[in-house]
């Protein structure tokens, strides 16, 4: 198979573990990894730092067109500022969801994302990787989990970092974000018609990875022994 067609997309709502899955799968395959969620988180952070209203689609899209974002050695950089930790807060996640709802913003970042598809292959995670950004991908995964399970995972993650967290509030925030992502007018969160659906509610990341590798072996039998 042409290396340019070596694409695996992993879509799903926030907190399903798709980012970790994408990183581990890309490492196992020796492919590149695209974290589109981080891209929108950086954009939201950059907009806030510049004092832009997240509801101002034109201004945020203009910023997106020249966003100085870089991914190096597992870290995320906004110009010369390492923002790896800054973009992983709940506030950054909410900002990302808001700026991602604007059609001009998504259009401004589309070419940047598509340019990441290069040999030997790409694992791309996000919310519209298999439906909009890479609809030609031969393997599409849609990873899901209940809002309660995702909130509990996030709660434990925040507590483990010594940060304050309220479980009921997290459940509500996740449900609200899901509704916003699924109802936005452009590139709404949904599974592609040919996506493999995986519910990770009762699965460990290792179990999810094994399940996805089964599909990789089926679609790319020459790549994984």
UniProtKB/TrEMBL annotation:
Keywords for the protein's UniProt record, in alphabetical order: ATP-binding, Cytoplasm, Kinase, Nucleotide-binding, Transferase
Keyword Signal: no
Subcellular location, principal: cytoplasm
GO molecular function: ATP binding; dCMP kinase activity
Signal peptide start and end residues: none
Every Cytidylate kinase domain range: 8-217
Gene3D superfamilies: P-loop containing nucleotide triphosphate hydrolases
Pfam families, alphabetized: Cytidylate_kin
GO process annotations (BP): nucleobase-containing small molecule interconversion; pyrimidine nucleotide metabolic process
Catalysed conversion reaction: dCMP + ATP = dCDP + ADP; CMP + ATP = CDP + ADP
GO annotation, cellular component aspect: cytosol
Subcellular location: Cytoplasm
Family statement drawn from the similarity comment of this UniProt entry: Belongs to the cytidylate kinase family. Type 1 subfamily.
Protein name in the entry: Cytidylate kinase
Organism: Thiocapsa imhoffii
Gene (UniProt): cmk
């Amino acid at each position: 198979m042409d290396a340019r067609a070596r694409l695996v997309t992993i879509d799903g709502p926030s907190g399903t573990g798709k980012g970790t899955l994408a990183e581990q799968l890309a490492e196992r395959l020796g492919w590149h990894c695209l974290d589109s969620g981080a891209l929108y988180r950086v954009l939201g952070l950059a907009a806030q730092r510049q004092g832009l209203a997240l509801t101002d689609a034109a201004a945020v899209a203009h910023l997106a067109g020249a966003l100085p974002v870089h991914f190096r050695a597992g870290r995320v950089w906004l110009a010369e500022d390492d923002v790896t930790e800054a973009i992983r807060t709940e506030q950054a996640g909410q900002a990302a969801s808001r700026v991602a709802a604007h059609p001009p913003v998504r259009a401004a970042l589309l070419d940047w994302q598509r340019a990441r598809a290069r040999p030997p292959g790409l694992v791309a995670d996000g919310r519209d990787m298999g439906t909009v950004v890479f609809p030609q991908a031969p393997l599409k995964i849609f990873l899901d989990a209940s809002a309660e399970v995702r909130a509990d995972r996030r709660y434990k993650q925040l507590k483990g970092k010594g940060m304050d967290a309220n479980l009921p509030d997290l459940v509500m925030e996740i449900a609200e974000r899901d509704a916003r992502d699924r109802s936005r007018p452009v590139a709404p969160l949904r599974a592609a018609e040919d996506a493999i659906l995986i519910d990770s509610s009762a699965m460990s990341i290792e179990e999810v990875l094994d399940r996805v590798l089964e599909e990789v072996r089926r679609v790319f039998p020459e790549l994984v022994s």
